């Protein structure tokens, strides 16, 4: 696919925070892209920079963040763009869903008012029209009897319903890109299945491109077309979903797969494979592989220079490793 | 031989909230039973009743043959060392102002057995060693440790009194995937070596696949099904168990996308006013008239039992994916 077919292109994005105890590097030269109607999953453990990457796309990070690199939405650069133009992007072009719907919703407004607010800000329609659209949106995300639910307050809804309301708000203005940051982490597994179904359905019906951030490889396996694996602020592997699960090239990806309890995968063994050691907290990004201390294959090369993200085997399978697990 | 744990008709109501209703469960000595359920199912409440952090409304809890249901705090003291609990969030269950060594030693200080300071320190070092931590950790504070290390500290504290029963309440849910694996392996190894019985409370069925001997599935305060691990995974009888297994995504895109989805709808009934008859009926794709009127009995099936009108003792079981059996 040519670069022109990409809706969102992130190149060399780096984010660091100035804190009381010094600089903390959260994201280091991350590159990823999103095609129209595509679902890309970003997976990693806590502290890998996946949420910071997501927040920086529409300039949602606090002032203490130093952001460099490039985020282009349909060719328009967003990094360094003035606040007024970012405000037009947020909600209308790039919309967000977060993990905990109860803290993202206003408890003293009905869900109809909250969805309507987005529409009134971006589309200048009347309150009555906004309410009608809110009902439409609630049924779009699978809320039964939307016409009465529209007058409910968030506390009257279950966790899954609240997350559906969040999704309805996010897609109210038919955004080009939907960023879903751990959208199902706070939900029960039987409810999660329904939420993932709604996201897939939105992609199919509205053609929305979705960037889904998660720590759960099961969610990735279920919904993503392509996967970006992050570790300690860097992209360590990027590949189409079936390719990644079938032939993980990076030992971190491989470790994550073996550490996830999956029915059937561990048949015959009575233990999960562990990844020894801890995720490092980095003040500066070293010129070395950040996974080297936990990697069984690490040598002096790994500790002496950072591996570039390069294609291995298939053209769209990129891995940042000096000694990748070879395709078998 | 007496069982490690016998729970009979356990009921725990908080005012109008019917958190647990008539739950019965037995764990033999050295056995591992997983209690699986989603949020609000009452699984943690069962655990808290067992360690008597809660006084059950009715029913009985026997630990190693001793009925602890109605014991007062003072009477419970001598039994405190036989059952321990590990909580979900180690950051919240370890006192931030206590040194790790003091945290781990606390069960020993509270027990009636007299012990010299030197002996206590020795036991703490042993216990830390058991969970894979160095003895120096005893002089650190909990905040200096990582999440996985902190959870190891809570396991060390729980095991220092050599309990015959360990309640593990979502011990890995607050941890990252790679750390989860190491804590799960540690628990499995310790259980095998020491041989304590374990009630493993979790929302994640796949986490217990190679750990539990038996699995009990709860929904809205009641047991839906229990059985051996292989039976629950290979031929679950209850529609809820089937839905739970079907809903947990498999970390394999080819298999995951080939599965038949089971969507239950996400309007969970409240424990304030649970549905009549079968509590799962409002979300069950197979529910019929009888489910609303009659409470389903626990029917023996294979090596377990299930509470569903569609399950019969001859082995007939429904399939949520295929619809009602003829």
Automatic annotation (TrEMBL), chain A:
First-listed, main subcellular location of the protein, grouped into a coarse class: membrane
Keywords (A to Z) from UniProt: ATP-binding, Cell membrane, Membrane, Nucleotide-binding, Transport
This protein's record includes keyword Cell membrane: yes
Residue intervals of the ABC transporter domain: 8-257
PROSITE patterns given in the database record: ABC_TRANSPORTER_1 (PS00211), ABC_TRANSPORTER_2 (PS50893)
Pfam families for this protein: ABC_tran (PF00005), oligo_HPY (PF08352)
Membrane topology: Peripheral membrane protein
Cellular component annotations (GO), alphabetically ordered: plasma membrane
GO function terms (MF aspect): ATP binding; ATP hydrolysis activity
Subcellular location: Cell membrane
InterPro entries, sorted: AAA+_ATPase, ABC_Ni/Peptide_Import, ABC_transporter-like_ATP-bd, ABC_transporter-like_CS, Oligopep_ABC_C, P-loop_NTPase
SUPFAM superfamilies (UniProt xref): P-loop containing nucleoside triphosphate hydrolases
Gene Ontology terms: biological process: peptide transport
Family per similarity comment: Belongs to the ABC transporter superfamily.
Name of the protein in question: Peptide/nickel transport system ATP-binding protein
Species assigned in the record: Asanoa ishikariensis
Lineage: Bacteria, Bacillati, Actinomycetota, Actinomycetes, Micromonosporales
UniProtKB/TrEMBL annotation, chain B:
UniProt-listed Gene3D superfamilies: P-loop containing nucleotide triphosphate hydrolases
SMART domains to which the protein is assigned, alphabetical: AAA (SM00382)
ABC transporter domain location: 5-245
PROSITE patterns (alphabetical): ABC_TRANSPORTER_1, ABC_TRANSPORTER_2
rRNA-binding keyword on record: no
Membership in a protein family: Belongs to the ABC transporter superfamily.
Name used for this protein in its record: Peptide/nickel transport system ATP-binding protein
Species in which this protein is naturally found: Asanoa ishikariensis
């Amino acid at each position: 696919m040519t670069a022109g077919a990409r809706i969102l292109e992130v190149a060399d994005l780096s984010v660091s925070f100035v804190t009381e105890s010094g600089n903390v590097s959260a994201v280091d030269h991350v590159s990823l892209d999103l095609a129209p109607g595509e679902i890309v999953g970003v997976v990693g453990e806590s502290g890998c920079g996946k949420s910071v990457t997501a927040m920086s796309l529409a300039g949602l990070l606090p002032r203490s963040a130093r952001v460099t690199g490039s985020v282009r939405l349909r060719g328009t650069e967003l990094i360094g763009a003035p606040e007024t133009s970012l405000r037009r992007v947020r909600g209308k072009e790039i919309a967000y869903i977060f993990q905990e719907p109860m803290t993202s919703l206003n408890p003293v407004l009905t869900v109809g008012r909250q969805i309507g607010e987005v529409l009134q800000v971006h589309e200048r329609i009347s309150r009555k029209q906004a309410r009608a659209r809110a009902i439409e949106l609630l049924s779009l995300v699978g809320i039964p009897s939307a016409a009465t639910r529209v007058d409910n307050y968030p506390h009257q809804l279950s966790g899954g319903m609240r997350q559906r309301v969040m999704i309805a708000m996010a897609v109210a203005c038919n955004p080009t890109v939907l960023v879903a940051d751990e959208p199902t982490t706070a939900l029960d597994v039987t409810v999660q299945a329904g939420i993932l179904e709604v996201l897939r359905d939105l992609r199919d019906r509205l053609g929305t491109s979705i960037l889904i951030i998660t720590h759960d490889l099961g969610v990735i396996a279920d919904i993503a077309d392509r996967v970006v694996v992050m570790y300690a602020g860097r992209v360590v592997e990027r590949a189409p979903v079936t390719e990644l699960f079938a032939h993980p090239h990076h030992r971190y990806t491989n470790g994550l797969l073996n550490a996830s309890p999956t029915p059937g995968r561990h048949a015959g063994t009575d233990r999960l494979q562990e990844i020894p050691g801890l995720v490092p907290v980095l003040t500066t990004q070293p010129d070395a592989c950040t996974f080297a201390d936990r990697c069984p294959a690490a040598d002096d090369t790994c500790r002496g220079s950072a591996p570039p993200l390069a294609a291995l085997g298939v053209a769209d399978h990129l891995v940042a490793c000096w000694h990748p697990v070879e395709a078998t | 031989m007496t069982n490690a744990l016998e729970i009979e008709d356990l009921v725990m109501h908080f005012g109008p909230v019917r958190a647990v209703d008539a739950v019965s469960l037995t764990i033999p000595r050295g056995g591992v039973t997983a209690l699986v359920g989603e949020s609000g199912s009452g699984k943690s409440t069962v655990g808290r009743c067992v360690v008597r952090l809660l006084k059950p409304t009715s029913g009985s809890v026997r630990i190693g043959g001793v009925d602890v249901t109605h014991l007062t705090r003072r009477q419970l003291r001598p039994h405190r060392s036989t059952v321990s609990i590990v909580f979900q969030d180690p950051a919240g269950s370890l006192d931030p102002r206590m040194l790790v060594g003091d945290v781990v030693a606390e069960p020993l200080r509270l027990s009636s057995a007299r012990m010299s300071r030197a002996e206590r320190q020795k036991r703490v070092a042993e216990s830390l060693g058991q969970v894979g931590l160095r003895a120096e950790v005893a002089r650190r504070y909990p905040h200096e440790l990582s999440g996985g290390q902190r959870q190891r500290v809570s396991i060390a504290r729980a095991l220092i009194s050599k309990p015959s029963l360990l309640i593990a309440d979502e011990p890995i849910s607050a941890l990252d995937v790679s750390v989860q694996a190491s804590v799960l392996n540690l628990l499995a190894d310790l259980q095998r070596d020491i041989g304590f019985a374990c009630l493993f409370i979790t929302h994640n069925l796949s986490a217990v696949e190679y750990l539990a001997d038996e699995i009990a599935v709860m929904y809205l305060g009641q047991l839906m099904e229990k059985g051996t691990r292989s039976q629950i995974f290979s031929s679950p009888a209850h529609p809820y168990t089937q839905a739970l297994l079907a809903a947990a995504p498999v970390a394999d895109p080819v298999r995951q996308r080939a599965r038949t989805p089971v969507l239950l709808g996400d309007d969970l009934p409240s424990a304030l006013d649970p549905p009549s008859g079968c509590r799962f009926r409002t979300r069950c794709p197979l529910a019929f008239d009888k489910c609303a009127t009659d409470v389903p009995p626990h029917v023996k099936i294979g090596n377990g039992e299930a509470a569903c009108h569609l399950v019969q003792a001859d082995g007939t079981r429904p399939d949520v994916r295929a619809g009602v059996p003829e």
